[in-house]
Amino acid sequence: MLGTGIIKGLVETARNFLGSYTRQERLVTVQYPEERLPQKENARTFPFLVYDGEDPIKGLRCVACQICEKECPPQCIYIVKDAVKKPDYAGKMQFQPKVFDLDISVCMSCQICVEVCPFDAIKMDTDFELSNTDRFAGFLLHKEQLAKSNAYYSEIHPTEAAEVDARLAAEKTRAEAKAQANAEAKARVASDVKAKPAAAAAPKAEAQTVPAAQA
Amino acid sequence: MDWAFFILAAVTLASAVGAMALRRLVHCALALALAFAGLAGLYLQLGAQFVGLAQVLVYVGAVAVLIVFALMLTRNVAAATQPLGSPSWPLGLAVAALAFGALVAAILSSPAIQRPVRELPSGTVQQIGIRLMTDFVLPLEVIALLLTVALIGAVIIAMQEERSRE
Amino acid sequence: MTNALDQLFVILKDWVVGWFPAGWQPFVGALLDAMAIVAVFATLFALTTWLERKGLGRMQNRYGPNRVGPFGLLQPLADGIKALTKEDLVPRAADPVVHFLAPLVLVVPVLLAYSVLPFGRNMVPLPGCDAGVLLFFAAGSATELAIFMAGWSSRNKYSLLGALRAIGQMLSYEVPLILSAVTVIMIVGSLSTEKIVAAQGVYHGWLPGWHVFTPWGFAGFLLFLVAATAESNRSPFDLPEAESELIAGYYVEYSGFKFALFFLGEYLGLFAVSGLAITLFLGGWQAPLSFLTWVPSWFWFFAKLLPFIALFIWLRGTLPRLRLDQLMNFAWKFMLPMALVNLVAAALWHWLGAGLARWLVSAALLAAAYLALGRAVSGAAKMPQRHYQLAD
User: Fold this and answer.
1) What is each CA distance from C215 to C206, C219, C274, C276, C281, in whole angstroms?
2) Is C45 part of any domain?
3) pTM for the complete prediction?
């Protein structure tokens, strides 16, 4: 009969209307900015530099190899290598960047810099609330603004961070084991050779193993 | 103190002149609609409520819309027409003045003007209805038949057009 | 039973009018009425836009606006400020005079139509108007010209198409609208709105004797409601102003306050025609139950108007838009015959005199016509099964 469809439709919308007041799950709106939906794990916006530990300068993983600067398609990264070296997580002395500028108004979030970095130093952030009143300088991020801790990285990308940490820890133990084996080898070599070459090599081996053991 | 009459008459006359003299046809049609509305105002001012409102309903609401539909569906309506001065305007003015003078003389000397004004009848809508159904029922039915015939004719013409287009 | 609260506004108006000399009093009275109508219904318009957005939102499982004030109540104010401060664009090719006048020609007749609605006992702005209902329809028909002016003056193909469609729709639905009002006029015997309301003032026991509680009144009420929805271009009949089809149809080239005036005109038309439906079918300012007549009459009028607004919002949130040919078919092939059958049913009701017989006869006639016409209009659109050649 003509009109039954209309009545059914009206009942349906009335049910929607009344249900929206009684059952909260009917309203699927997220009231931004009071409520926010959690970001997915592989969300990405712009890169940031990871540092281990507490000190953003001493723990910065970036060694200024400039691979990301060369690989970046829109060339938004600008690095100036520092002459002063610093030790990395495994104790080896590495370069560090004096200037690391990233222009996020140019960056296209392609993640190539993350993919090519051999040191897991640059990773993608998920923060999107980056509004700024300065159209040019506000979007040119410097090293201090880009450096965020590993703890933050584990928060935003837990699986990736866990994998990176595991890998770095494994490399560190391997490096230490190698250094240990080197030291023992050197010590055995030193003890095998008698007289002056041994006496001359021992203090030199001592001097070499001491820094290795300290790292 | 018939301010209402003077204002309404001025509006009606001005829009009637405009319906003739404006350059764009659409403006002319809208001025004509305003003239209809002015006439309706005159009827209302005379106390003929039913006639005045029926004038608005029929003329402004239907006839004017019909006219603008007819304008819209013809081409080249937007182009402004030529200016309306014609070289023989003194002759036209003389003829118009002559006709106006004759009409005014006829009206002023007619017995209708010289009769004393009666008071207005009350309950006009009901009286109109009663007269339509008793004294004037035959013209009413004939007009109804005429309108029905016109409606059916229009439908048939439209149907034939559709069929011929298929 | 006139008490002071019921006649509050009448007493106030008489007091203010009494300050002026006798020659000025009619004008001052009319001015006060006009000011009151504009104030009340413009506020109601603002309230309705808020109600609509919240109501539609809730029906669509979302919140409506809730940022601007508490529960978004200041949203209409924000919308008004936005409309006033937007740049008023007039296209270069547009006809400036007609473009300017179109919103005025829309709003002014609609406001004029309010002058015959009885808002309460002794509260008709134009008392003694013998042809009140006719004035209402006459004012309503002047709005069609405004739509043409708007669509034409924009010099835009789409707005012209929208205007043509809108005028066609409004003309088609005016006929059932007026015919369903004519049944009431026929039974009451007068075109005056006050007499129509007074004729519904009888109570059978404690039930009211409104026209909607009779078979022909109920059918007439439904027809009037549907035709009124179509007259004010309201969903599901909002093809002329469909946002997704014709952008905004005949007022696409309007911005800023003129657009707001079109919007205002549409909603004011909605309130006016709801007010007329209340007057014709729902007893105007009469109380619904005989022991509630102590409540002021103007309260009842607005208490009946608010469910109408809610109903229109509910319909808008429920029904999809009708296509132009569906719309026209519905008007000419269903509503017009139904309105004519309604006339016959009302005539039978009047002729058969009081008793059970007239109820049965009227109701049977209307039900039979409804079923037959319903089957005809819904069966005509049976389309054959479509076969897609490549989509397998």
Assistant:
1) 19, 6, 20, 19, 12
2) no
3) 0.83
